[in-house]
Amino acid sequence: MDTISNDLEQEYRDTWKTPYISDDMTTDPELNKSWRMGDYKYASKPKDSWELGFSVGHFFIDGDVDREIPAGFGVTAHLRKSINYVLSIKGSVFYGKARGLEAQPARHRNSLNSNGVGGGLVEATFLDYDPNLGGPGVWFPNHETTYMAGYLSAVINVGNLLFHKERNKWNWYATLGVGLDHHTAKLDLLDNNGLPYMDLISRLNWTRDEFNTKVGRDRIKSELGVIYDGVYETEGFKKEGIFRIGDDFNIHVVFVPSMGVSRKISKRLNIGIEHQIFLSDNDYLDGNKYRTALDQTNNVDIGHYTNLTIGVNLGNFSEVTEPLYWLNPIDVAYNDIAILKSKSTLDLTDEDNDGIIDILDLELDTPEDCPVDTRGVLLDSDGDGIVDCEDKEPFSRPGCPVDEFGVSQCEDDCCTDEEAINRLIDARTEELRNALLLRTGDNSTAPGGNQGNISGRTTETTITDAPSTTGQPTSGGGTVKEGTSKEGTTKEGTSKEGTTVISKTGTPVSGGGTTGTSTTSGPYTTYVRTGCGDWFLPMIHFDLNKDIIKPEYFSHLHNVAQVMAKCPEVCVVAQGHTDSRHSNDYNRVLSYRRAKAAVDYLVENYGIDRSRIKLMYGGEENPMVKSPTSEAHHFMNRRVEFRTCDANDFNMAAPEGYNPNASKSSSNRPEYYNGNKSSGY
Predict the structure, then answer these.
(1) What is the longest distance spanned by two Cα atoms in the chain?
(2) What is the pLDDT of residue 492?
(3) Average pLDDT of every residue of the chain
(4) Which residues pair with 187 in a beta bridge?
(5) pLDDT score at 434
(6) HSE-up of 20 (CA within 13 Å, CB side)?
(7) Are 239 and 282 in contact, with CB atoms under 8 Å apart?
(8) What kind of fold does domain 461-659 have according to CATH?
(9) In 10 A of CB 232, how many CB atoms?
(10) CATH 2.40.160.20 for domain 48-333
(11) Which residues share a beta bridge with 272?
């Protein structure tokens, strides 16, 4: 029962409350995430479902023949998809039948009245009623019309713009459609013997006075129903000289305006009532054009369809939302405003002085000077049930019973002293150092603390061989051929610094004081081995569409600054890159801005000489992940790499389209603002 109750509660909330829309349920998940974090003004558009609908209702033709009640029926199927919260597109097909019966007579054009005026039956279809050919001259019009249409409609919806509640139950809309129609009008002109109906006026005892009353018209129609055989054997006249799809096809252009209102039943289902009008330049939907020469009736016949509609929303609601015309577009803004208004003033009170403010503290009365965790809970490091500040052995062996003071009662109990811990750390450090030495492929000192030694012991760093222009190492003080970079040479081309750059894979590439063809760095860092120490030059990554350095990469830039401070002869390249999710022209500007942000940070915060840094950029042309399939892959490609300079490196000029004075993004880049959502700005 509880499960059923929970399911019903969830269904109710999904139907009538603010819907939950995850990032993956939007057209741009990364953009939606940026909006949630307060880094972008607008949410991404939700992916919404299609609506499949069916309708049935009353169909009649307003034309030259009075309609019967009920006149006929119609059925419709439609498929609807929202474009935005107000506009949607609906494709529909319609099929209907309608009948009509007139209570006043129509005369053949050769049948003259007392004033010498002929009637309105002028088409060849009514030849059997020509009095000159022995016909009766008078007929009471009737018809049975089959009508079909297919059309595409624009639907304007305003029922979901709500200012005072979360969701709407009712939805009012109006549509305008255009398409093609086809009809076949059949007339009951002949009796069972294939002859025209004779003497209808006298058989009905028809008078004008009786026709002018509702009771009289009902009697006339009732008796006509007995006289006529009910077989619509004669096909009505088809209008000529208007646009249609070929002379052999009775297909015309039709306009279909409509108006309706729908009621939501659940997240999946809605019902509605709608009235449609079929407008075409056609006066023969009922098979008749005139009743008499003087009573010419309507210029065109109009189809009317009043129907009940049921709509079913298709799709998996864990992946898509309801159609947008059932969502309130301003609900998100109202919800954010309500959250900001309900936020209390930040209270930094810490009553127990344990370092955890009271609004985050799970234990508000911990004794002073007792260690606590990040939740403000007293620590019990060995899990023996006695908190550390009362435990005489806070790190007793796990599983051993303890006394009331936390002292282990195991006979072979022993404690790990400080010296043992230091020996363990040294052993693990040596293992890591050996692993790094294997990775670099030689026996030189791996990067680390003082002079590059991980363990912290002071050692000397030897000057390693630098590659020659042919890619072969020369001695540390050997002569380097023409083309060697400035930082790597002295008089007559002698290598001064002896710098080697090694990528993550351990392959030597050229750098300051080296020659040869430059190779891109490994996936994460560039390993710089110089006479002033062994260093890694890291890279930094950026958020989508951003050139702002994230705080977590400040330490990476600090590392670059330390290398340049300790090695004043080293020249460093800062090269910016982007992912592939924009035009290359835009990405070149963005990669330049990223590299410039990193260079400016080093110059402004660490006083690095700007001439020692080469600013380069490549847009999306050199991805680390060549075929990205996830956001993590794109994140790796959005980067600034640091490496030592090559002889061919230079400061690249700003790309075309870069505006150093722009206060916000250009028109081809989404606007964004910066702030701290948690702080309300």
Answers:
(1) 135
(2) 35
(3) 78
(4) 234
(5) 64
(6) 9
(7) yes
(8) 60s Ribosomal Protein L30; Chain: A; (3.30.1330)
(9) 20
(10) yes
(11) 262, 309
